[in-house]
């Protein structure tokens, strides 16, 4: 009766020992692989040095400073990748209240703050108006642009536009609204975004209070160059702070404490080589980024930037006008490169004294299709001849609408028609161009060949010699108003062009602005004022695993909509 249970216990014990022994001889379970770290920040590569946190001053408007400003600063509007206006519905609202007199209201949404926690207020908008309007200036200038009397307070990179003058703004603090009434209707009213440097920071740098500065802006008389007045001391102090107070000291870097901004980033570190920014958790706008931070690296030149992109050290970069070898090098390194048009265009401009028949003959002799194919399509296969004096494909659908029915000439050559325009007379065209620019030199060489087929001897204008035409790189503006203004100011003119521009200036509906711009283009083509050739190519490089980065047409600009950027690989 007792023997069997003992036998069973002994067997169980042996089984346990055997199991333990087998377990001791078995291979251990492999340790789980450590999880790969998730990247939440990217590196952006920019050519140039950071010299100021105010990119709106005459000395601060460098490509590198503007690139940083596009990340930090937030206003009531911005430009997309095709340089068209996008309202910032997360900050406030711009409304055209009335057309005549043109009345525009600026509304700020509540709970919007600067990166130091100070509320964004109507005081900031009022100060932004004071800066951009030059309302208080009473300076008179000589032929070289030097002040001979009076005062210019704010040294802005963009001069005051006489067509954009307004009365002093009115404020409705109960509704957080500032209202402007223009002296006359103005086409670019929707590009006046007001918000500038934070007024509380400017006032502190100037040694005045915000209230003192607001009182000065609301009470100081409008400037009159015919009767210059003693400068207002508060305005003068604020202007001095705005002009230079955000700049780097000699041999140093800008003070990170000065980088108070309204956007979703705040500056955490500044060195000579890089800027580090972190996401603001208290940001309440519409551009909250998925990334937690960005590092902006600064490069001395394009070659070092490209090398860093190819090596994987930079995730996002506007790499400019690549040649085929540079493009191949980046793509071989696994970099995604998007090429596209920019706003910089090459145009053949005829001098005022160039005979009409010679202008027409040269226009007919040009094979612009072959120019673009040979010089542009190796890097940008979809490049086409430029068909406007006022815009380029960089502006997307706006350019398509403008060039539909604007009387642009054909894009292929017609040597027989060119000879007929000259009545089979031999002709000479002296061309001025920048021989140090590779594209201009290549175009000139081809002009010589094309002209010869039409009986036109094209040669380079000697120094001091009057040229019949000039190859000019032109920085087109995303605004049809400003492009038209600048082309006419440069002497490119045609019948009724000035009348059409006067109308365009006062058009406040984009449809009317487009119609007037198209009329200006038609006038310039009718007068054979010149021949638009092509626009320079741009390129945006994106590293492996980076998504959401769009192309930008702005030369050296940061790709837009950084809040859509993401990264999927470590």
TrEMBL record:
InterPro entries: SBP_5 (IPR039424), SBP_5_dom (IPR000914). It comes from the Bacteria. Keywords: Signal. It holds the Pfam family SBP_bac_5. The keyword Signal applies. Residues 398-418 are annotated as: Disordered. Residues 1-26 form the signal peptide. Residues 398-410 have a biased composition (Polar residues). GO terms for molecular function: peptide transmembrane transporter activity. Residues 97-424 form the Solute-binding protein family domain. GO terms for biological process: peptide transport. PANTHER family: MONOACYL PHOSPHATIDYLINOSITOL TETRAMANNOSIDE-BINDING PROTEIN LPQW-RELATED, PERIPLASMIC BINDING COMPONENT OF ABC TRANSPORTER. This is ABC-type dipeptide transport system, periplasmic component. It comes from Microbacterium testaceum (strain StLB037).
